Amino acid sequence: MAPSPDDTPSAGNTSEHARPGRVRLRRAAVLAVPAAAVTATLAVLTAQGALGVQFAISGMPFTVTATELDGNGFAQFGGLDNMAEGSPNAGDTGGQVLVVTSVIENAKLTKLCQSVDLGGTNLLITAGDGSTRVSASDLTTDSTFLSGDASFNNIEIGNDAGTLDKAGPKGRGPIGVFSQQADTVHIKNLRQTNYATTAAVFKLPGLKLRFSGSGC
Predict the structure, then answer these.
(1) CA distances from 176 to 44, 164, 169 (A)
(2) Per the UniProt record, which residue ranges are transmembrane (predicted)?
(3) What is the span of the domain harbouring residue 108?
């Protein structure tokens, strides 16, 4: 759900961003590592970039962790997020970030933590520490790094993203993009570097928002 793409060996991510002025993602390879048990390479070969979200991202990555995630209806495919024109965070990528989009139709998370590094301090959000877990429907995350210990039921790897049907309409990606889907997903010790998160409904029991010297 940040260290922004560090491209460390353990993360196993490789990415190639479009240069300024380019509006097409010609070729990219994304390695998603959701678990030691299941490792899938998501090769993205699209004529146009696939948008995981329908808003301009800030370009500031954030970290999301949870001790456990349980989801029904899981889909994952490559995508391209875009920053607002003139964003100071665009760097030399033209304001584009290559991401892995993960969609879970119904998700529950334990001890959710989200932090954003603001430079010298962190905006920290926590929820779901008590008996009631965080819950979300149509949860979508655009990530550059994802890790944890995961298990899947009835996983399918190598689908055309435009044909996905296990995570509902929002879990269907662009035609021609490599993807995977599963009936259910369970991840322990989840850690994500995200650029965007959306949900139809997001319930955060025990929500706490504060500034902190350390992140998640």
Answers:
(1) 8, 11, 17
(2) 28-51
(3) 28-212
